[in-house]
């Protein structure tokens, strides 16, 4: 069978998205989550989820290039992303790569369809940037492991059916060497997820407490004590996929802001300068991601250049939203207002959210150290 | 793609071989004018690259010059490279001079925000009047390319009514002159309506490329320096504060390089309005990013960075001089915002 050309594929995606029309997304967070989960199901049934995944895993067996085209069309249509992004972009690729046939068969189709929402239980209160120092313990108990400890900042843990959990299985060796990667059913007794309110007002991430949670050994991803390499793979997928999606989202956000400003007509010096700065930043990101895309399509694997990408993305994302949000002036504090034609609530929210970009997925400081040591070859401290 | 890379690496090879530290320093001390270097580059055919074949050139696109300008920036090859490479490529009636004697670009519109400080020109019929107070390589030029309003004309420097005075220059790579016209009859008026904008747009884009090379050069020197300079018993490159500054320089320099490459790839054959936007975007970013990289470079060189001994101080002064030529970041951001917000959307 020949692979559908990208142009045909794009046209098909565009017309399908036009046919389903705009989606009503409620403001209430729980109702919103349910609608977006149904949306993932709709996308999945129509064959748009897991485009680059193998057919055995429930995907469409197309290429990363198709996936990119679809993301572009989805964002351009102002349609929301499927809700299970952590599964799709972060955890799923590692299960596909390192999982047993049984794990892939049982877990991946449900991950793609949105029947199972996944969360990523990596960070802990005392293990953030220094992730390898994590302390959540798993001890052998017959055929099972018993897990005790605490995770934090776990996005969507309160909604998730499954968790990709990093645990310490051997405290006696070098910190990276004693870590295992577990796939944990969130319905297991002993798990409590408590949402934390973010400065945006949303409750997307949680504290997760684990108290002697029983996990069968067959839910190890990869071998015992070999979880660190897989965790690195997971973080790498997160950066790659998110960078490319984020570029399109930012581009469309800036277009929306420009359209709003134009429709309002009154354009001060501030608006022109802000749009100019945001546009330049956006072009910088576009130029940078052309290289990223080349590497992704060539399956080049992780390189220290990914850290340059992340630094550029963070800075551009924060610049674009800071420039737009600055045009809200004092009305930033009145979410229902429309200063200069811009919906205050949306842009203030986007701006706040952009501050997380330089924290999650490896902070900007961590990326700078990687660039200096692995790209520029500066000596280690 | 591959052939562009070949061109860049051929230029890089040649400059690495022949344009060594001594020669560079001499040129910088001489204010950027060296008849031997100009003749040499003319002889190599670098000035004919983007000149159409019917005018004796190689017939590449002006975009192909971008890679060459990145190398000029990196190796600090200064002098009338822009004039010699770009003007014969775009302006009918000009051919590359075999001895590398440049045309000068007499343009009161090299900047928007300082336009009142640069002087004004008026063309009545074929008679030219007025003054431009800062013209690169005016004294050295064999012909003047004058941009007046929306018109391009060619003027002989020794025509009656032309006066050219040499000026002091703080750009180590450029000699400046003041050009005055008093009832000067121009040699030729060019009919092409979009040419003024096209010359400015390409100049802007090539200067952005040069600045990208300048940033790269300053970064490379700095990475070498911090890996070797020791304080507190170890290389200063082991200190995290130093590493992070170097990493920022690297991210800035890389992103500027990528932006210029993307702009060059996109610039070929687009409408004049799009070319304007693309070039303004590249130069807006280049103006700030290159200066910032050079400032960090000087910081990481300590006292040495403040001297003329250190290459980074030359890179910095070059970046500062090029920053405002055909628009600095502030001016161009405003121009871009205006284009996006008021004209038909040129996305
Ligand atoms: C919106 C959001 C969603 C998230 N979702 C998830 C999720 O789903 N799952 C998950 O596991 N985690 C998630 N995280 C957590 C995220 O990965 C961590 O916040 C991140 O790794 C940083 O860890 P920390 O918060 O403990 O900060 P710290 O590591 O304490 O860092 C604090 C500051 O110190 C700096 N610093 C730390 N070490 C160094 C060093 N060696 N050199 C220089 N500077 C240093 C950091 O750069 C930072 O500025 C999320 C975070 C956010 C903000």
From TrEMBL, chain B:
Keywords: FAD, Flavoprotein, Oxidoreductase. This is Acyl-CoA dehydrogenase. Residues 202-328 form the Acyl-CoA dehydrogenase/oxidase C-terminal domain. It comes from Pseudonocardia sulfidoxydans NBRC 16205. Its cofactor is FAD. Residues 3-76 form the Acyl-CoA dehydrogenase/oxidase N-terminal domain. Pfam families: Acyl-CoA_dh_1 (PF00441), Acyl-CoA_dh_N (PF02771). SUPFAM superfamilies: Acyl-CoA dehydrogenase C-terminal domain-like, Acyl-CoA dehydrogenase NM domain-like. Gene3D superfamilies: Acyl-CoA dehydrogenase/oxidase, N-terminal domain (1.10.540.10), Butyryl-CoA Dehydrogenase, subunit A, domain 3 (1.20.140.10). Belongs to the acyl-CoA dehydrogenase family. PANTHER family: ACYL-COA DEHYDROGENASE, ACYL-COA DEHYDROGENASE FADE28. The keyword Nucleotide-binding does not apply. GO terms for molecular function: acyl-CoA dehydrogenase activity; flavin adenine dinucleotide binding. The keyword Flavoprotein applies.
